[in-house]
Specification:
With 93 residues, the chain is mainly alpha-helical. The chain is built from three helices and two strands, in the order αααββ. It has a domain of 38 residues. A two-stranded antiparallel sheet has the order 1-2.
Length: 93
Amino acid sequence: MRDAEIREYEDQAKLALSETEKAYISELADMLTESFGELEKIDTETVLPLVTVLDVNNVFRKDRANKTVSREELLISAPEVYDGYFSVPKTLI
C-alpha cells in the first residue's frame, strides 16, 4: 500500500501513526492484496452462492394479513392526543 493511501486513511480516522506503524500497516495491506489476488484466480463460475452453512428451509411464517387495531382504538388509551396523533412531551431542548 502506498504511503499516500495510508496518510489518507490516517487523516480520515483522525489517527497519528508512527513510521513503524505505517510500515506495518503497509505490509499487512500488501499481504491482503496478494491473498485476494490468489483468490481471484480460482474459477467459481459453476459454484452456487452460499447463503448459510446450515441445512435449513424457509423458517418464516406465511405472509398473511391479520386484524389490525384502528387509530381510534389506539388513541383511546393515549394520555393526550393532538391532531389524531399521540402527544408526548418534548425530549430535546
